[in-house]
Write a structure and sequence with these properties.
The chain has 5 helices and 12 strands. The chain has helices at about 70-75, 120-125, 130, 135-150, 220-235; strands spanning about 15-30, 35-45, 50-55, 60-65, 80-85, 90-95, 100-105, 110-115, 155-160, 160-180, 185-190, 210-220. Strands 1, 2, 3, 4, 5, 6, 7, 8, 9, 10, 11 and 12 form a 12-stranded mixed β-sheet that branches. β7 and β8 form a beta hairpin.
């Protein structure tokens, strides 16, 4: 007799499940043609973590992430040509010239100096936090944001059954940046142009650090579909 394989029960139908990621995103370009987006997440379902998405001048898209769990979450939204599992650290400091970030991993060494709060940041600071980070607000302002900041979206579909919302609460300009990627000089600060092609959203063309709350909404039916696909593989 062939032994039976017992599968866990399918996830129950319920309201859409939500996850929140709270932190800051730095988006910079460099004179080498490389564009870099660094996520410095203070609170998330995975705990605090940092990651970096890099697009080289030749279009090669690279993800640097500290764990398989982070890679799994990021790859549900973005597309890469290469993924590297390596520790990523953001060290923040404040000196006479202002605040700065030092982003380090085995592949990347990037220094970013922040400037004054941007005009958009002043507007966002006037919004109640509950409003600025709500999914309804992200949905309502998405068409306007796309006009004001081409390539940037506050609401979108990452994969079937998976929606993401970006609620920005502050924006600071980046005034300088330098560093290396794979021990090659990145040059100095430049606009994030052409836009990054990771998928779904992007970062403003003007180098900046944005304080943001990202909400991921997962449709339970999509979870059940994945369970059914897994059950079909097991039953073969």
């Amino acid at each position: 007799m062939t032994p039976r394989t017992f599968l866990p029960p399918p996830p129950p139908l319920a309201q859409a499940q939500r996850q929140r990621f709270e932190g800051r995103i730095a988006g910079v370009g460099t004179t080498s043609g490389t564009r870099i987006v660094v996520g410095n997440w203070a609170r998330s379902p995975l705990g605090p973590f940092c990651d970096a998405m890099v697009e080289r001048a030749d279009g090669h898209r690279l993800l640097l992430a500290p764990s398989k769990e982070v890679i799994e979450v990021v790859e549900l939204t973005y597309v890469f040509d290469e993924v590297r599992l390596e520790p990523v650290r953001v060290t923040e400091s404040r000196g006479a010239t202002g605040a700065s970030w030092r982003v380090t991993s085995r592949s990347l060494d990037l220094s970013v100096v922040l400037g004054e709060r941007a005009g958009l940041g002043h507007l966002l600071q006037r919004l109640p936090l509950r409003v600025a980070t709500s999914t309804r607000w992200a949905t309502a302002v998405n068409p306007v944001v796309g006009l004001v900041l081409p390539g940037v979206r506050t609401r979108g579909v990452a994969r079937p059954g998976r929606r993401e919302f970006y609620g920005a609460t502050d924006v600071h300009r980046v005034v300088s940046a330098w560093g290396t990627l794979d021990h090659r000089d990145l040059g100095t600060l430049a606009r994030v142009d052409p836009p990054c092609h990771f998928g779904f959203s992007s970062t403003p063309r003007s180098p900046s650090v944005t304080t943001v709350v990202t909400t991921i909404e997962q449709d339970p039916e999509a979870q059940r579909s994945r369970w059914r696909a897994g059950a079909a593989r097991w039953s073969r």
